[in-house]
Amino acid sequence: MHITSKSRLYAVRFSQVDSMNVDSSMETEGKLVDRSRYVVETTILKGLFRKVSYAERTSRNAPQKDSTQHTAQNSLSSGLGQAVDCVQPISIFKNPMTTNVQLIVHVIAALVALYFHVTIGFNVDTENFIRHRGAPGSMFGFSVAEHRDRGTSWVLVGAPEAQTSQPGVRRGGAVYRCDVSRDDACQEVPFDVTGNNNNSEGRQIDLKSEQWFGATLQSSGEDGVVACAPRYVWFSQSLNRRDPVGTCYVARNSFREYSEYSPCRT
Known about the structure:
- The chain has helices spanning 5-18, 22-61, 64-73, 96-116, and strands at 77-79, 82-83, 143-149, 152-159, 174-179, 186-188, 206-207, 216-219, 225-229, 233-235, 242-243, 247-252, 257-261.
- It is of the alpha+beta class.
- It has 2 domains: 27-116, no CATH class; 143-261, no CATH class.
- A 4-stranded antiparallel β-sheet has the order 3-4-5-6, with no helix packed on it. The chain has a 4-stranded antiparallel β-sheet with strand order 8-9-12-13, with no helix packed on it.
- Strand 8 (216-219) and strand 9 (225-229) form a beta hairpin.
- Helix 2 runs antiparallel to helix 3 (64-73) and helix 2 (22-61) packs across helix 4 (96-116).
- The longest helix has 40 residues, at 22-61.
- It is extended and about 70 Å long.
- The N and C termini lie far apart (91 Å).
């Protein structure tokens, strides 16, 4: 069989590929994947630019009074970075091109977000602010509520994993009342200062450790604050079952009266 110079060249290339080790094969495969991804992205961009050029050409050929409406009906860009607002509402089901362009735009936006991990945030006020900080690991700030009591404004802050002085309770959580005019001026609100409850026989009937007290927090107005522990566990009367029923406390009379509500105990 006659082998041309080009065939010999291909044969040499194939023999080189066969002699590659595993690492080089994996590297080649990675390059192919990158190449395929590049081709897909390039194809998407080319398709978008062609549709944009088509809209611009056809709008220039149309009468002046209809050119803007024509471009808008196709939901295309009249220039990079400039969106054309529709002159009148048009159903996307009546214009297949609109659906195609919207899909392409969404795909491009997803690719940009995937590659650059873009997140945009801003501070509302960088000059006039008050900062309150809790103990490390307490999840201080998990819940926040504004409260006003007898003409005084407060910020209520929940710390669901705060370590309190409750005996025998590990990271039961707490709620803090913070001043709105001074930094780090917070004091714990004593919703519950007791440890785990026991029955008449001295056996434990509930579990307050890691109950996440302060995970939910709500001010009910001039006189009343509700704070809950969604992971509070109640032991059944026979003590053979553990029910995560949760519990809530209500503070009244300027944080001097406290009541507990846990209606799902059995």
